[in-house]
Amino acid sequence: MIDAPADMLFVSTRNSSLTARFSEALAQGLAPDGGLYVPTAWPEVRLEELPDASDLPALAHAVLRPFLRGDRLADELGAITREAFSFPAPLVPLGEGAKLAVLELFHGPTAAFKDFGARFLAASLTRLRKGSARPLRILVATSGDTGGAVAAAFHRRPGIEVAVLFPKGLVSPVQERQLTCWGENVRSFAVRGTFDDCQRMVKEAFLDPVLRERSELSSANSINLGRLLPQMVYYVAASLRVWREHGERANFVIPSGNLGNALACIWARRIGLPIGEVVLAHNANRTVPDFLETGEWRPRPSVATLACAMDVGNPSNMERLRALYPRLEELRAAVSAYSVDDDQIRARIRAGWQRFGQVWCPHTATAAEAYERLGPERQARRWILVATAHPAKFPETVEPLIGEKVTPPPALAELLSRPTSFTEIDADLGALRAVLT
Ligand SMILES: *Cc1c(COP(=O)(O)O)cnc(C)c1O
Protein backbone atom coordinates (compact mmCIF):
# COMPACT_ATOMS: atom_id res chain seq x y z
CA MET A 1 0.00 0.00 0.00
CA ILE A 2 1.26 3.49 -0.85
CA ASP A 3 0.59 6.32 1.59
CA ALA A 4 -1.06 9.37 0.17
CA PRO A 5 1.44 12.26 0.11
CA ALA A 6 1.21 14.38 3.25
CA ASP A 7 -0.16 17.92 3.20
CA MET A 8 2.45 20.63 2.73
CA LEU A 9 3.17 22.59 5.86
CA PHE A 10 5.29 25.67 6.33
CA VAL A 11 7.17 26.32 9.54
CA SER A 12 8.52 29.44 11.25
CA THR A 13 12.28 29.95 10.98
CA ARG A 14 12.25 30.63 14.73
CA ASN A 15 10.06 27.87 16.09
CA SER A 16 9.61 24.51 14.43
CA SER A 17 6.32 23.85 16.21
CA LEU A 18 4.60 26.84 14.55
CA THR A 19 3.22 25.49 11.31
CA ALA A 20 0.76 26.76 8.71
CA ARG A 21 -0.66 25.73 5.39
CA PHE A 22 -0.10 27.90 2.33
CA SER A 23 -3.30 29.95 2.78
CA GLU A 24 -2.68 30.61 6.46
CA ALA A 25 0.90 31.64 5.79
CA LEU A 26 -0.34 34.01 3.10
CA ALA A 27 -2.94 35.63 5.29
CA GLN A 28 -0.51 35.99 8.21
CA GLY A 29 2.53 37.26 6.33
CA LEU A 30 4.90 36.85 9.28
CA ALA A 31 4.63 33.83 11.56
CA PRO A 32 3.15 34.74 14.97
CA ASP A 33 6.61 34.60 16.59
CA GLY A 34 8.04 37.07 14.07
CA GLY A 35 9.79 34.32 12.09
CA LEU A 36 9.44 33.67 8.37
CA TYR A 37 7.62 30.69 6.93
CA VAL A 38 9.69 28.07 5.08
CA PRO A 39 8.60 24.71 3.64
CA THR A 40 8.91 21.69 5.94
CA ALA A 41 9.67 19.42 2.98
CA TRP A 42 11.08 19.93 -0.49
CA PRO A 43 9.23 18.42 -3.42
CA GLU A 44 11.44 17.00 -6.18
CA VAL A 45 10.57 17.99 -9.73
CA ARG A 46 11.05 15.65 -12.66
CA LEU A 47 12.45 17.78 -15.45
CA GLU A 48 11.12 15.60 -18.24
CA GLU A 49 7.58 16.02 -16.92
CA LEU A 50 7.64 19.81 -16.91
CA PRO A 51 5.71 21.60 -19.69
CA ASP A 52 7.21 23.88 -22.31
CA ALA A 53 9.44 26.57 -20.81
CA SER A 54 7.55 29.35 -22.58
CA ASP A 55 4.24 28.42 -20.91
CA LEU A 56 4.66 30.23 -17.59
CA PRO A 57 1.15 29.51 -16.22
CA ALA A 58 1.51 25.77 -16.88
CA LEU A 59 5.02 25.69 -15.44
CA ALA A 60 3.85 27.65 -12.40
CA HIS A 61 1.06 25.18 -11.86
CA ALA A 62 3.36 22.16 -12.16
CA VAL A 63 6.02 23.55 -9.84
CA LEU A 64 3.83 25.19 -7.20
CA ARG A 65 1.21 22.44 -6.88
CA PRO A 66 3.17 20.43 -4.27
CA PHE A 67 3.49 23.57 -2.12
CA LEU A 68 -0.32 23.83 -1.96
CA ARG A 69 -0.98 20.17 -1.23
CA GLY A 70 -3.89 19.94 1.19
CA ASP A 71 -4.54 23.68 1.07
CA ARG A 72 -7.96 25.17 0.46
CA LEU A 73 -6.63 27.04 -2.60
CA ALA A 74 -5.14 23.92 -4.21
CA ASP A 75 -8.00 23.47 -6.68
CA GLU A 76 -7.82 27.10 -7.75
CA LEU A 77 -4.09 27.13 -8.45
CA GLY A 78 -4.61 26.80 -12.21
CA ALA A 79 -6.80 29.89 -12.33
CA ILE A 80 -4.44 31.79 -10.03
CA THR A 81 -1.38 31.06 -12.15
CA ARG A 82 -3.20 32.01 -15.36
CA GLU A 83 -4.16 35.31 -13.82
CA ALA A 84 -0.76 36.08 -12.31
CA PHE A 85 1.53 34.93 -15.12
CA SER A 86 -0.08 36.91 -17.90
CA PHE A 87 3.11 38.48 -19.25
CA PRO A 88 6.37 36.90 -20.46
CA ALA A 89 9.86 36.63 -18.93
CA PRO A 90 12.03 36.55 -22.07
CA LEU A 91 15.61 35.30 -22.08
CA VAL A 92 17.61 37.57 -24.40
CA PRO A 93 21.09 36.44 -25.54
CA LEU A 94 23.89 39.00 -25.29
CA GLY A 95 26.18 39.02 -28.30
CA GLU A 96 26.74 36.41 -31.01
CA GLY A 97 27.07 32.81 -29.85
CA ALA A 98 27.68 34.02 -26.34
CA LYS A 99 26.97 32.03 -23.23
CA LEU A 100 25.52 35.10 -21.59
CA ALA A 101 21.86 36.13 -21.58
CA VAL A 102 19.57 38.58 -19.80
CA LEU A 103 16.35 37.42 -18.14
CA GLU A 104 13.93 40.31 -18.54
CA LEU A 105 11.53 40.43 -15.62
CA PHE A 106 10.11 43.87 -16.39
CA HIS A 107 7.22 43.18 -18.76
CA GLY A 108 4.49 43.46 -16.14
CA PRO A 109 2.20 46.41 -15.34
CA THR A 110 4.73 48.34 -13.24
CA ALA A 111 7.83 47.22 -15.16
CA ALA A 112 9.65 45.44 -12.33
CA PHE A 113 9.94 41.79 -11.24
CA LYS A 114 7.77 42.50 -8.18
CA ASP A 115 4.72 42.36 -10.46
CA PHE A 116 4.98 38.54 -10.56
CA GLY A 117 4.80 38.09 -6.79
CA ALA A 118 2.30 40.89 -6.18
CA ARG A 119 -0.10 39.57 -8.81
CA PHE A 120 0.09 36.00 -7.51
CA LEU A 121 -0.55 37.20 -3.96
CA ALA A 122 -3.49 39.35 -5.10
CA ALA A 123 -5.04 36.50 -7.10
CA SER A 124 -4.68 34.19 -4.08
CA LEU A 125 -5.91 36.61 -1.41
CA THR A 126 -8.93 37.63 -3.47
CA ARG A 127 -10.02 33.99 -3.61
CA LEU A 128 -9.36 33.48 0.08
CA ARG A 129 -11.48 36.50 0.95
CA LYS A 130 -14.48 35.52 -1.15
CA GLY A 131 -17.61 35.70 1.00
CA SER A 132 -15.93 37.45 3.96
CA ALA A 133 -18.15 39.91 5.74
CA ARG A 134 -15.44 42.41 6.68
CA PRO A 135 -13.24 44.21 4.18
CA LEU A 136 -9.54 43.42 4.15
CA ARG A 137 -7.20 46.38 4.36
CA ILE A 138 -3.70 45.97 3.03
CA LEU A 139 -1.11 48.37 4.41
CA VAL A 140 2.11 48.81 2.45
CA ALA A 141 5.06 50.95 3.41
CA THR A 142 7.20 51.50 0.36
CA SER A 143 10.47 53.12 -0.60
CA GLY A 144 9.49 52.90 -4.25
CA ASP A 145 8.87 49.75 -6.30
CA THR A 146 6.92 47.51 -3.93
CA GLY A 147 4.04 49.92 -3.42
CA GLY A 148 3.45 50.33 -7.15
CA ALA A 149 3.43 46.60 -7.85
CA VAL A 150 1.09 45.91 -4.93
CA ALA A 151 -1.23 48.79 -5.85
CA ALA A 152 -1.42 47.60 -9.46
CA ALA A 153 -2.06 44.00 -8.43
CA PHE A 154 -4.87 44.83 -5.97
CA HIS A 155 -6.50 47.66 -7.90
CA ARG A 156 -10.28 47.05 -8.27
CA ARG A 157 -10.19 43.79 -6.29
CA PRO A 158 -13.54 43.45 -4.54
CA GLY A 159 -13.51 43.40 -0.74
CA ILE A 160 -9.91 44.61 -0.51
CA GLU A 161 -8.67 48.13 0.20
CA VAL A 162 -5.06 49.20 -0.14
CA ALA A 163 -3.28 52.02 1.68
CA VAL A 164 0.16 52.86 0.34
CA LEU A 165 2.51 54.87 2.58
CA PHE A 166 5.56 56.46 1.01
CA PRO A 167 8.04 59.07 2.28
CA LYS A 168 7.11 62.45 0.82
CA GLY A 169 9.68 63.69 -1.69
CA LEU A 170 11.96 60.67 -1.24
CA VAL A 171 10.80 58.44 -4.11
CA SER A 172 11.73 59.00 -7.76
CA PRO A 173 9.28 60.92 -10.00
CA VAL A 174 8.27 57.78 -11.95
CA GLN A 175 7.86 55.81 -8.73
CA GLU A 176 5.69 58.55 -7.24
CA ARG A 177 3.39 58.42 -10.24
CA GLN A 178 3.12 54.64 -9.94
CA LEU A 179 2.17 55.01 -6.30
CA THR A 180 -0.47 57.67 -6.79
CA CYS A 181 -2.23 56.98 -10.11
CA TRP A 182 -4.79 54.39 -8.94
CA GLY A 183 -7.83 55.69 -7.10
CA GLU A 184 -10.92 53.60 -6.22
CA ASN A 185 -9.84 50.96 -3.68
CA VAL A 186 -6.20 52.13 -3.62
CA ARG A 187 -5.27 55.22 -1.62
CA SER A 188 -1.83 56.78 -1.36
CA PHE A 189 -0.38 58.70 1.55
CA ALA A 190 2.72 60.88 1.35
CA VAL A 191 4.15 60.71 4.84
CA ARG A 192 6.10 63.69 6.14
CA GLY A 193 9.02 61.54 7.18
CA THR A 194 11.31 58.76 6.01
CA PHE A 195 10.73 55.21 4.78
CA ASP A 196 11.53 54.00 8.31
CA ASP A 197 8.68 56.20 9.61
CA CYS A 198 6.31 54.63 7.08
CA GLN A 199 7.34 51.15 8.18
CA ARG A 200 6.95 52.02 11.84
CA MET A 201 3.45 53.42 11.23
CA VAL A 202 2.39 50.21 9.49
CA LYS A 203 3.73 48.11 12.37
CA GLU A 204 1.90 50.32 14.88
CA ALA A 205 -1.30 50.12 12.85
CA PHE A 206 -1.25 46.32 13.13
CA LEU A 207 -1.20 46.60 16.91
CA ASP A 208 -3.79 49.40 17.10
CA PRO A 209 -7.15 48.25 18.52
CA VAL A 210 -9.05 51.08 16.81
CA LEU A 211 -7.81 50.23 13.31
CA ARG A 212 -8.19 46.49 13.90
CA GLU A 213 -11.78 47.07 14.89
CA ARG A 214 -12.51 48.86 11.61
CA SER A 215 -11.20 46.21 9.22
CA GLU A 216 -9.01 43.18 8.96
CA LEU A 217 -5.41 44.19 8.33
CA SER A 218 -2.83 42.47 6.21
CA SER A 219 0.51 43.33 4.68
CA ALA A 220 1.81 42.49 1.25
CA ASN A 221 5.49 42.91 1.85
CA SER A 222 8.16 40.81 0.27
CA ILE A 223 8.57 38.35 3.13
CA ASN A 224 5.09 36.97 2.35
CA LEU A 225 5.26 33.42 0.97
CA GLY A 226 2.62 34.41 -1.57
CA ARG A 227 5.18 36.65 -3.21
CA LEU A 228 8.21 34.44 -2.74
CA LEU A 229 6.97 31.11 -4.12
CA PRO A 230 5.77 32.44 -7.51
CA GLN A 231 9.16 34.07 -8.06
CA MET A 232 10.60 30.56 -8.42
CA VAL A 233 8.71 30.17 -11.68
CA TYR A 234 10.84 32.39 -13.93
CA TYR A 235 13.99 30.64 -12.69
CA VAL A 236 12.37 27.31 -13.46
CA ALA A 237 11.50 28.54 -16.96
CA ALA A 238 14.91 30.03 -17.74
CA SER A 239 16.97 27.12 -16.40
CA LEU A 240 14.73 24.56 -18.08
CA ARG A 241 15.11 26.32 -21.38
CA VAL A 242 18.90 26.39 -21.11
CA TRP A 243 18.91 22.73 -20.08
CA ARG A 244 16.72 21.64 -22.97
CA GLU A 245 18.56 23.73 -25.57
CA HIS A 246 22.16 23.28 -24.44
CA GLY A 247 22.25 20.47 -21.87
CA GLU A 248 23.98 22.82 -19.43
CA ARG A 249 23.15 24.29 -16.06
CA ALA A 250 22.22 27.96 -15.90
CA ASN A 251 24.14 30.19 -13.49
CA PHE A 252 22.44 33.38 -12.29
CA VAL A 253 23.57 36.84 -11.20
CA ILE A 254 20.75 38.48 -9.24
CA PRO A 255 20.48 42.14 -8.18
CA SER A 256 19.67 41.79 -4.48
CA GLY A 257 18.39 43.82 -1.56
CA ASN A 258 16.06 41.94 0.75
CA LEU A 259 17.10 38.66 -0.97
CA GLY A 260 13.57 37.58 -1.91
CA ASN A 261 14.34 37.27 -5.59
CA ALA A 262 17.60 35.39 -5.02
CA LEU A 263 16.02 33.09 -2.45
CA ALA A 264 13.41 32.06 -5.00
CA CYS A 265 16.24 31.03 -7.35
CA ILE A 266 17.89 29.01 -4.58
CA TRP A 267 14.59 27.31 -3.78
CA ALA A 268 14.18 26.47 -7.48
CA ARG A 269 17.62 24.83 -7.39
CA ARG A 270 16.64 23.03 -4.19
CA ILE A 271 13.67 21.31 -5.84
CA GLY A 272 15.86 20.01 -8.63
CA LEU A 273 16.11 22.59 -11.40
CA PRO A 274 19.44 22.53 -13.26
CA ILE A 275 20.83 25.70 -11.71
CA GLY A 276 24.54 26.08 -10.97
CA GLU A 277 25.90 29.14 -9.21
CA VAL A 278 23.77 31.86 -7.65
CA VAL A 279 25.62 35.17 -7.40
CA LEU A 280 24.15 38.03 -5.37
CA ALA A 281 24.83 41.50 -6.74
CA HIS A 282 24.41 44.11 -4.01
CA ASN A 283 24.86 47.86 -4.22
CA ALA A 284 26.90 49.80 -1.63
CA ASN A 285 24.79 48.21 1.11
CA ARG A 286 27.31 45.48 1.84
CA THR A 287 25.81 43.57 4.77
CA VAL A 288 25.59 40.28 2.86
CA PRO A 289 28.95 40.37 1.04
CA ASP A 290 30.63 41.30 4.34
CA PHE A 291 28.89 38.46 6.14
CA LEU A 292 30.03 35.88 3.61
CA GLU A 293 33.55 37.21 3.90
CA THR A 294 33.85 37.59 7.67
CA GLY A 295 31.19 35.26 9.07
CA GLU A 296 29.85 38.10 11.24
CA TRP A 297 26.25 39.20 10.73
CA ARG A 298 26.29 42.97 11.13
CA PRO A 299 23.06 44.61 9.93
CA ARG A 300 23.34 48.39 9.61
CA PRO A 301 21.27 51.39 8.50
CA SER A 302 20.86 51.48 4.74
CA VAL A 303 22.69 53.99 2.55
CA ALA A 304 21.04 55.64 -0.46
CA THR A 305 22.29 54.47 -3.87
CA LEU A 306 21.30 54.68 -7.54
CA ALA A 307 19.87 51.15 -7.27
CA CYS A 308 17.43 52.38 -4.64
CA ALA A 309 15.14 49.32 -4.56
CA MET A 310 18.13 47.43 -3.12
CA ASP A 311 18.93 49.93 -0.36
CA VAL A 312 18.56 47.43 2.44
CA GLY A 313 20.90 47.24 5.42
CA ASN A 314 19.22 44.32 7.18
CA PRO A 315 17.93 41.90 4.54
CA SER A 316 15.06 39.99 6.11
CA ASN A 317 15.24 36.92 3.87
CA MET A 318 18.71 36.13 5.22
CA GLU A 319 16.79 34.31 7.93
CA ARG A 320 15.35 31.95 5.32
CA LEU A 321 18.70 31.50 3.63
CA ARG A 322 20.33 30.56 6.93
CA ALA A 323 17.50 28.16 7.69
CA LEU A 324 18.45 26.33 4.50
CA TYR A 325 22.22 26.57 5.06
CA PRO A 326 22.83 26.83 8.81
CA ARG A 327 26.61 26.46 8.58
CA LEU A 328 28.70 29.25 7.10
CA GLU A 329 30.66 26.87 4.89
CA GLU A 330 27.42 25.53 3.41
CA LEU A 331 26.19 29.03 2.76
CA ARG A 332 29.47 30.01 1.11
CA ALA A 333 29.19 26.98 -1.15
CA ALA A 334 25.59 27.89 -2.04
CA VAL A 335 25.99 31.57 -2.94
CA SER A 336 28.60 34.23 -3.50
CA ALA A 337 28.09 38.00 -3.27
CA TYR A 338 29.58 41.22 -4.58
CA SER A 339 29.06 44.86 -3.66
CA VAL A 340 28.89 47.45 -6.44
CA ASP A 341 29.14 51.21 -5.84
CA ASP A 342 27.37 54.01 -7.71
CA ASP A 343 30.36 54.87 -9.93
CA GLN A 344 30.59 51.25 -11.02
CA ILE A 345 26.85 51.22 -11.70
CA ARG A 346 27.18 54.27 -13.94
CA ALA A 347 30.16 52.81 -15.78
CA ARG A 348 28.34 49.52 -16.34
CA ILE A 349 25.22 51.25 -17.73
CA ARG A 350 27.47 53.05 -20.25
CA ALA A 351 29.32 49.85 -21.14
CA GLY A 352 26.10 47.86 -21.61
CA TRP A 353 24.92 50.42 -24.13
CA GLN A 354 28.24 50.65 -25.97
CA ARG A 355 29.03 46.94 -26.08
CA PHE A 356 25.63 45.32 -26.42
CA GLY A 357 23.21 48.11 -27.33
CA GLN A 358 21.40 47.22 -24.09
CA VAL A 359 19.91 49.78 -21.73
CA TRP A 360 20.08 48.57 -18.15
CA CYS A 361 18.39 49.99 -15.09
CA PRO A 362 20.75 50.71 -12.16
CA HIS A 363 19.77 47.43 -10.45
CA THR A 364 20.42 45.31 -13.51
CA ALA A 365 23.76 47.10 -13.94
CA THR A 366 24.91 45.77 -10.55
CA ALA A 367 24.44 42.25 -11.89
CA ALA A 368 26.37 43.09 -15.07
CA GLU A 369 29.22 44.46 -12.95
CA ALA A 370 29.26 41.43 -10.65
CA TYR A 371 29.46 39.21 -13.74
CA GLU A 372 32.56 41.09 -14.91
CA ARG A 373 34.26 40.20 -11.64
CA LEU A 374 33.77 36.44 -11.96
CA GLY A 375 36.92 35.87 -13.96
CA PRO A 376 37.43 33.78 -17.14
CA GLU A 377 37.07 30.33 -15.59
CA ARG A 378 33.64 30.95 -14.14
CA GLN A 379 32.58 33.06 -17.12
CA ALA A 380 33.17 30.09 -19.40
CA ARG A 381 29.91 28.64 -18.10
CA ARG A 382 26.40 29.68 -19.10
CA TRP A 383 25.30 32.81 -17.23
CA ILE A 384 22.05 34.70 -16.92
CA LEU A 385 21.90 38.29 -15.71
CA VAL A 386 18.58 39.02 -14.08
CA ALA A 387 17.07 42.34 -15.24
CA THR A 388 14.80 43.37 -12.39
CA ALA A 389 13.34 46.63 -13.74
CA HIS A 390 12.89 48.50 -17.00
CA PRO A 391 15.34 51.39 -17.42
CA ALA A 392 12.48 53.80 -18.20
CA LYS A 393 11.67 53.75 -14.48
CA PHE A 394 14.96 55.56 -13.84
CA PRO A 395 15.33 58.05 -16.72
CA GLU A 396 17.12 60.67 -14.60
CA THR A 397 19.98 58.21 -14.02
CA VAL A 398 20.05 56.29 -17.27
CA GLU A 399 19.44 58.89 -20.00
CA PRO A 400 22.45 61.15 -19.31
CA LEU A 401 24.73 58.08 -19.26
CA ILE A 402 23.71 56.74 -22.65
CA GLY A 403 22.86 60.08 -24.26
CA GLU A 404 19.48 58.83 -25.47
CA LYS A 405 15.87 58.97 -24.37
CA VAL A 406 14.50 55.74 -22.92
CA THR A 407 11.01 54.89 -24.17
CA PRO A 408 8.71 53.43 -21.53
CA PRO A 409 6.99 50.15 -22.45
CA PRO A 410 3.27 50.63 -23.28
CA ALA A 411 1.92 49.48 -19.89
CA LEU A 412 4.23 51.87 -18.04
CA ALA A 413 3.47 54.72 -20.47
CA GLU A 414 -0.23 54.22 -19.80
CA LEU A 415 0.29 54.48 -16.03
CA LEU A 416 2.42 57.58 -16.43
CA SER A 417 -0.36 59.32 -18.35
CA ARG A 418 -2.99 58.86 -15.63
CA PRO A 419 -4.01 61.61 -13.20
CA THR A 420 -2.53 61.23 -9.73
CA SER A 421 -3.75 62.00 -6.25
CA PHE A 422 -2.51 61.49 -2.74
CA THR A 423 -3.04 62.76 0.79
CA GLU A 424 -0.20 64.19 2.81
CA ILE A 425 -0.05 63.08 6.44
CA ASP A 426 2.19 63.48 9.48
CA ALA A 427 4.46 60.61 10.45
CA ASP A 428 2.40 59.30 13.34
CA LEU A 429 -0.26 56.73 14.04
CA GLY A 430 -2.90 59.35 14.94
CA ALA A 431 -2.62 60.85 11.46
CA LEU A 432 -3.00 57.42 9.87
CA ARG A 433 -5.98 56.60 12.04
CA ALA A 434 -7.66 59.85 11.01
CA VAL A 435 -7.46 59.01 7.29
CA LEU A 436 -8.21 55.27 7.49
CA THR A 437 -11.85 55.36 8.44
C1 LIG B 1 12.96 44.95 -5.04
C2 LIG B 1 13.97 45.10 -6.13
C3 LIG B 1 15.24 44.48 -6.08
C4 LIG B 1 15.68 43.68 -4.88
O1 LIG B 1 14.97 42.48 -4.75
P1 LIG B 1 15.01 41.67 -3.37
O2 LIG B 1 14.05 40.58 -3.54
O3 LIG B 1 14.62 42.65 -2.30
O4 LIG B 1 16.42 41.21 -3.17
C5 LIG B 1 16.08 44.59 -7.16
N1 LIG B 1 15.74 45.34 -8.24
C6 LIG B 1 14.55 45.95 -8.34
C7 LIG B 1 14.24 46.75 -9.55
C8 LIG B 1 13.62 45.85 -7.29
O5 LIG B 1 12.43 46.49 -7.39
Question: What are its keywords?
Answer:
437 residues; alpha/beta; Rossmann fold; six-stranded mixed sheet; five-stranded parallel sheet; 14 strands; binds pyridoxal-5'-phosphate
Give the structure's gist in a few sentences.
The chain is α/β, with parallel strands linked by helices and 437 residues long. The chain has helices at 22-28, 56-64, 77-84, 114-129, 145-154, 173-180, 195-207, 209-214, 225-246, 260-270, 287-294, 318-324, 328-334, 342-356, 362-372, 376-379, 395-402, 410-416, 429-435; strands spanning 10-12, 19-20, 37-39, 91-93, 100-104, 136-141, 160-167, 186-192, 216-219, 250-255, 275-282, 336-339, 383-387, 423-426.
Explain what you see.
The protein has 437 residues and is an alpha/beta fold. It has a domain at 84-113 and 226-408: Rossmann fold, CATH 3.40.50.1100. Helices cover 42% and strands 16% of the residues. It contains 19 helices and 14 strands. The protein has helices at residues 22-28, 56-64, 77-84, 114-129, 145-154, 173-180, 195-207, 209-214, 225-246, 260-270, 287-294, 318-324, 328-334, 342-356, 362-372, 376-379, 395-402, 410-416, 429-435; strands at residues 10-12, 19-20, 37-39, 91-93, 100-104, 136-141, 160-167, 186-192, 216-219, 250-255, 275-282, 336-339, 383-387, 423-426. The strands form 3 sheets. Strands 4-5-13-10-11-12 form a 6-stranded mixed beta sheet. The longest helix has 22 residues, at 225-246. The chain is globular, with a radius of gyration of 21 Å. The site of pyridoxal-5'-phosphate (PLP) has 17 residues, from α10.
